[in-house]
Amino acid sequence: MRKTLHVFCSKKAQTIFNDSTIKGDSLLFDEKLTEGELTIDIFSDIFWSKRYEYFEKTHQVSKLEYFDSVIKPILQLEDLNGYTEITLWLDFAKESQINLIAFGAYFANTFSKDIQYNLVCSGKHKGRDALQKLIDYNSSEFSILYSYKVKLTLPNLEYLQNCWEAYITKNIEFDFSKFSNKFRYLQQVMNT
User: In the β-sheet with 4-8, what is the strand arrangement from edge to edge?
Assistant: First the structure.
């Protein structure tokens, strides 16, 4: 039996998902990786230490508060026994795309051939002029979005890991356009 973990970076999108008919568990990663100090070792002790420090100093968020809202949910990724699929739900915005490369880096490091990794990324939508965020859809439209999910292979995840390293080191020479059919918004936000 297939068991899926759906990963969201927006509480509103997760709520819409929970109202849909799509099966599986959901996880919320409510972090702003576009600000503060980051490390290449994604989700490592050093990474979390830097994030604690930043949020405590800049946003007056206590370590306990930060742990409960950000780290505790992400700990679910340490034991994926029973899951056969992980689907990342993101959109075209820079914050979302940074989360994409962060998760790509993490899953490249923890890759399991027994898990299928997928991406649902909203943006351009036929019949709508503006780019669409996940929260622009209703729960029944989430099923349609989910049917268009794309598989993320190990080379895709390794590429995202390289994107993460380029983002952290501010390597402006890095080519963010590779796999542009899957990661079409990545180059756009990295060059802004």
Answer: 25-28, 4-8, 85-90, 116-121, 150-152
